[in-house]
Amino acid sequence: MGNLQTLINYHAPLNYAQDLNEQIIDQGMLEHPGLGQIQLWKIKESNLPMLFSFHAHIFEKDSSIIEIHNFRSSLQHPNLIEYFACTGSKALNIGNVQSQQFFFAYYSKTLKDHIQSTNITEVQIWKIIEEIVDVMVYLQGKNRYHGNINSQSIFITDNFHIKLLDKIGQKPNRYSIKDDVYDLGILVIELLTKRTNQLNFISQIKNLHGKFTLQLLQLVAKMIDQNPDKRPDFNQIQKMVINRFKEPISFINPDKIADRNKLTSRISTQAPLLSQTDEIKSIQEQSLQITQLPCLLSQKCAFPSTILRCKTTKNLQDQHSNNLSPYKNKNFESTPRKIYSDKMPQQSTTDYRQSPQNQRHYDNQITPRTLDFNIQYQLN
Questions:
Q1: Does one domain contain both 177 and 233?
Q2: pLDDT tens, residue by residue, 40-79
Q3: 100 and 139 together in one domain
Q4: What is the 3-state secondary structure (H, E, C) of 15-82?
Q5: In a domain, 324, yes or no
Q6: What separation in angstroms does the CA of 198 have from each of 71, 122, 150?
Q7: How many domains does the chain have?
Q8: Do 165 and 117 belong to one domain?
Q9: Which of 41, 297, 319, 367 could form a disulfide with 51 if both were Cys (CB 3.0 to 4.6 A apart)?
Q10: Pair 249, 219: CB distance under 8 Å
Q11: Which residue positions in the chain have pLDDT lower than 50?
Q12: Quick check: helix, strand or coil at residue 365?
């Protein structure tokens, strides 16, 4: 079978200087719905919670038993199941694979049992989400993932706190964290509907409108997006959960973001044109002010205004009526023009003016007047 190696966590209520088999008692095997076949143990002469153990096969090139033990002993989070010890043996017949046995604290009640036996309110659902997300943020920061988030693999303490078991000795790939996010979304739908193995999750979310807040339903919809790249990670989910009362949880459409970026770049390229348009508008406003200058001068100004007064001996209106051109006078009737087939005789300008009719016309047009202008200054 190979040599057996035992490592005990110094944070556990066990004596790491003593052999593990001398400190625990076998309590039999159990087929766990979420963890598979496990073995139960009890610490001798102690009322502490029971232990359970399971076997895992890990390639030597991935991690050694000492590396896994040291790393798992360093993980300390209130929502992680307490790690106690591990044993490892190298079997010669299975190549470079170590068969390792891990010991953890055992909790008899799962989240599945809690869902089926209790009417869970939305406040309690938010509390469960907060605790799961908090421990997953912790694991994500340690470059680890869960790999099996469901109601049967999550334990609940007597004080209704969540306990999770991480994926031992395995580092996440590109989509491991996003797969955990999707599994959490399916778990929340189970909390909302108390049903599993549903086919159309989006339709189930639509049917829950009015029963739960829009914040919760939108968060679930983001977590179960079919495109892993569009799903948020646990750090982003934690910010959404914390700020759910301050900022709305809205869907982010990458196409709309691309269109908005194109529009922003287009506006930046059109900035010189906009500046030229502003200059044209300013010039138009200045020209409008110049055209309105006489109206502005009629109002009160800071400088003295000049008033022109005209003294005439006759009424200007009567004089104007007398000075009308004969062609504008309604009583004036012009004689019909004569059309000569031959060339008209040339006549000097002096002879033309000396004719009585033309001389009378010019006398009526030119009438001398004597105007006396007095300039007065009026100070405002």
A1: yes
A2: 999 987 777 689 998 887 766 556 788 888 999 999 999 9
A3: no
A4: CCCCCHHHCEEEEEEEEECCCEEEEEEEECCCCCCCEEEEEEEEECCCCCHHHHHHHHHHCCCCCECC
A5: no
A6: 37, 20, 14
A7: 2
A8: yes
A9: 41
A10: yes
A11: 1-2, 92-93, 251-257, 263-264, 266-267, 270, 293, 296-297, 300-308, 310-316, 325-330, 332, 340-342, 373, 375, 377-380
A12: helix
CATH number of the domain within which 167 lies: 1.10.510.10
Asked if 90 and 219 sit in the same domain, the reply is no
Torsion sign across C-alpha atoms 352, 353, 355, 360: positive
With residues binned 3-state (H G I as helix, E B as strand, rest as coil), the percentages for the chain, rounded to 5, are 40, 20, 40
41, 123: one domain = no
- Please spell the DSSP secondary structure of 204-226, one letter per residue: HHHHTBTTB-HHHHHHHHHHT-S
pTM for the predicted model, two decimal places: 0.62
User: In this structure, which amino acid lies at residue 200?
Assistant: N
Q: Give me the residue label for tokens 């200059």.
A: 279
Using a 10 angstrom Cβ sphere, with 0-12 exposed, 13-18 middle and 19 or more buried, the burial of residue 217 is buried
- For 107, 138, 263, the CA distances from 145, given in Å and listed in that order, are 21, 10, 39
List residues bridging with 83 in a β-sheet.
104
Name 99's bridge partners.
57, 89
For residue 234, the model assigns a pLDDT of 95
**Same domain, yes or no, for 99 and 196?**
no
Task: With beta carbons less than 8 A apart as the criterion, state whether 50 and 104 touch.
Answer: no
Of 258, 280, 313, which residue constitutes the final position of a domain?
A: 258
| The pLDDT value given to residue 33 | 80
Domain that holds residue 92: 4-105
CA-to-CA distance for 352 and 336, rounded, in angstroms?
18
- The b-or-e profile of 103-139 (16+ CB within 10 A means b, else e) is bbbbbeebbbebbeeeeeeeeeebebbbbbbbbbbbb
Alpha carbon distance 245, 258 (integer Å): 28
The reply to whether 101 and 132 lie within a common domain is: no
